[in-house]
Design a protein that fits this description.
The protein has 342 residues and is mainly α. The chain is 88% helix and 0% strand. It contains 10 helices and no strands. Helix 2 crosses helix 3 and helix 6 runs antiparallel to helix 7. It is globular, with a radius of gyration of 25 Å.
Length: 342
């Protein structure tokens, strides 16, 4: 490698390291920037379809896209429409549910003491309620901070979106020109593959979440289970998290069925609905939409989700998977080059 190329490579690596450090030090800028970039990658295929082809083709594609978007947002609108009623019922039943849980825990303590002579000192119900109260108070105290962050995002996300749609080509060209020649070709291919896979993954997960949430909502409506829209929405949103999401989404429905005194509320019917919805997801939806995009081992996915939750909370848990898939591809290419050189 020539001296000029080495200098260019070192400068590029220094710029890359600086960008990573900047992203870590200034999350208030990088998080809305990343969110806007995700929206851009999701919208890019649709904008290409809507701006190319004949008028008839564009109109047909617009109608198809409108139906698809309406289908995706229907669970959200239905949840918001019924949220006031469902939360009113839930708030009214919360003290009774707390009393039932306390009675069950007390009965468990009595059984353990009678059979083993061991006195349980755990009080999970009061502990959870105290946590909820403290978290609620903490949330109220931080409302000004949340509102400030929300206004920042409302300002920055559209600004970054405008930049991506209007200036992304020039920015990409400038970035590619900064890449040293020896790694230019592979960098270009990897960057293009990452953009494509990342956008496809996010779209696929949203479609998968919509399908599962709709199935759960319709199933709970059929069996007459309480809070079907909220539970369906929770099941869909948590399903965005691979493997552990369905379990998290099932927990609220399980406790509602466990604590309900209504004879029409069927635990078995609820379990069947969730089982069928997740089977359809695992057998049909996930293999067709998601698994071919990331192609990662389940253990790698679970560990990645844990790392993502530590780095970026819920958002980190969602977006970490395509990044891990990208690094897997990157390491494969590096290993391939090293093998050829050796």
């Amino acid at each position: 490698m020539k001296r000029n190329q080495k200098i260019k490579l070192y400068l590029f690596l220094a710029m890359f390291a600086g960008a990573v450090i900047f992203a870590i030090l200034f999350p208030r800028l990088t998080l809305p920037f990343g969110f806007a970039y995700i929206l851009y990658l999701m919208a890019k295929p649709f904008t290409v379809k809507l701006t190319t082809g004949s008028k008839k083709q564009r109109f047909i594609y617009f109608c198809i896209m409108l139906v698809g978007v309406s289908f995706m947002f229907f669970p959200l609108f239905a949840t918001l429409y019924n949220m006031d009623t469902d939360f009113g019922k839930f708030s009214a039943q919360l003290p009774e549910a707390q009393k039932i849980l306390q009675d069950k825990v007390f009965g468990l303590k009595v059984k353990v003491f009678d059979q083993f002579g061991f006195k349980l000192k755990l009080d999970p119900v009061n502990y959870v309620m105290a946590k909820i109260e403290s978290q609620g108070a903490d949330f109220l105290n931080h409302i000004p901070d949340y509102l400030s962050a929300m206004f920042e995002w409302m300002l920055l996300v559209p600004l970054f979106l405008w930049f991506f749609f209007m200036e992304s080509r020039k920015f990409s060209q400038g970035l590619l020109e900064a890449i040293p020649n020896p790694i230019f070709e592979k960098s270009y291919v990897l960057f293009s593959q990452f953009n494509t896979k990342f956008g496809e993954y996010i779209i696929a997960k949203f479609i998968e979440a919509t399908i599962l949430g709709t199935l759960v909502t319709l199933g709970l409506l059929i069996v007459g289970f309480p809070y079907p829209f909220i539970l369906g929405f929770v099941a869909g949103v948590t399903n965005i998290l691979p493997y552990i999401g369905p379990v998290i989404g099932f927990v609220p429905a399980f406790f509602i069925a466990l604590l309900s005194k209504d004879p029409n509320v069927s635990m078995l019917g609820m379990v069947v609905i969730y089982t069928l919805a997740n089977l359809i997801d695992m057998i049909l939806v996930f293999p067709l939409l998601v698994s071919k995009i990331v192609n990662l081992h389940p253990i790698v996915v679970v560990v990645s989700i844990i790392i993502g939750s530590q780095l970026g909370g819920i958002v980190g848990m969602i977006v970490i998977i395509p990044f891990i898939a990208f690094f897997k591809l990157l390491f494969k290419e590096i290993y391939k080059d090293l093998s050829v050189q050796l």
